[in-house]
């Protein structure tokens, strides 16, 4: 009789299956206690359980912003806007804030203006207005002399692009050295410079510069890209740490997407590289020899040899200099 009662009790027990609100509340609690790694885990669970709930995506993006993972935050916010239209106008301000942190001021201005357009009396009204005022000051201070500097920078960038795409390190190095003196505020110049000196033979100096940069800013994408490549070429397993960092980044800018995809191919992460290449905009990147070079190599080594050959042939037709390179399709 006693056993029967115990069985009845067990049959009446309702299993506890957490819903999104449970994980969300846990994530908020961890966030308020500034335990951001724990907050990310809980928020990810909330998103997994209720992927249709925009609030969970937005809050996860805020946690990412707090830890400096601006690209991951922007990806979430963009998805929310795509799925809800302008219903979650706060996303516009959060995007503006992230782009300001990334130094992409035109994008920051565009999203701040969108926020004020769709929610002029919203919670972030003062912050968005202040951000626009700061950006407007930058615009006012940009005079004719600065425009001339920008034109000069563009000419240098085109020269560097030409040589970097062809891996002509001896030709690009003196150009980059000039640019470092003339445009010290442009970070990407230094990343191109470290690649040039690494492949010119000064590997230790290149690694030291990038490691010092990463120590100052652990989220510096250019440093993760270069260190993944440098350590791989040196046979140092530390490259895997930087590859993992790249696998967590989904940029919205085609140039950055290409650099990540090419780096994955150059470090023999062919499957992941191929996935990234298939997501790129061919029309935006067909002027880049590296697009065809590394996309075709990634395809070749995951046994898509017909696709690899078609890509390589198209690349050689568009960029005849590629035909002079050694390529697995020619072997």
From TrEMBL:
Transmembrane segments: none annotated. It comes from the Bacteria. TPR repeats lie at residues 20-53. The keyword DNA damage does not apply. InterPro entries: TPR-like_helical_dom_sf, TPR_rpt. The keyword Acyltransferase does not apply. Keywords: TPR repeat. This is Tetratricopeptide repeat protein. It comes from Virgibacillus phasianinus.
């Amino acid at each position: 009789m006693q056993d029967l009662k115990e069985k009845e009790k067990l049959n009446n027990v309702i299993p506890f299956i957490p819903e999104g609100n449970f994980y969300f509340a846990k994530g908020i609690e961890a966030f308020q206690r500034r335990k951001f790694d724990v907050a990310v885990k809980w928020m990810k669970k909330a998103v997994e359980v209720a992927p249709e709930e925009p609030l969970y995506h937005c809050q996860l993006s805020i946690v990412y912003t707090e830890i400096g993972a601006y690209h991951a935050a922007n990806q979430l916010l963009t998805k929310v806007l795509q799925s809800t239209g302008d219903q979650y106008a706060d996303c516009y301000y959060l995007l503006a804030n992230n782009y300001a942190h990334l130094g992409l001021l035109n994008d920051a201005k565009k999203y701040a203006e969108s926020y004020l357009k769709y929610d002029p009396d919203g919670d972030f009204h003062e912050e968005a207005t202040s951000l626009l005022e700061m950006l407007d000051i930058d615009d006012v201070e940009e005079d004719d002399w600065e425009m001339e500097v920008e034109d000069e920078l563009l000419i240098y960038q085109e020269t560097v692009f030409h040589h970097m795409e062809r891996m002509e390190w001896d030709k690009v190095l003196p150009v980059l050295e000039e640019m470092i003196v003339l445009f010290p505020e442009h970070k990407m110049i230094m990343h191109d410079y470290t690649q040039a000196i690494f492949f010119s033979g000064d590997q230790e100096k290149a690694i030291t510069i990038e490691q010092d940069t990463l120590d100052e800013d652990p989220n510096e994408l250019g440093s993760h890209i270069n260190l993944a490549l440098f350590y791989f070429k040196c046979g140092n397993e530390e490259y895997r740490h930087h590859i993992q960092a790249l696998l967590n980044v989904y940029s919205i800018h085609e140039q950055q997407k290409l650099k990540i995809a090419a780096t994955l191919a150059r470090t023999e992460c062919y499957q992941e590289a191929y996935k990234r290449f298939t997501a790129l905009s061919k029309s935006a990147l067909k002027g880049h020899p590296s697009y065809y070079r590394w996309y075709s190599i990634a395809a070749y080594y995951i046994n898509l040899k017909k696709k690899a050959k078609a890509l390589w042939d198209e690349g050689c037709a568009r960029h005849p200099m590629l035909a002079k390179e050694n390529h697995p399709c020619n072997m």
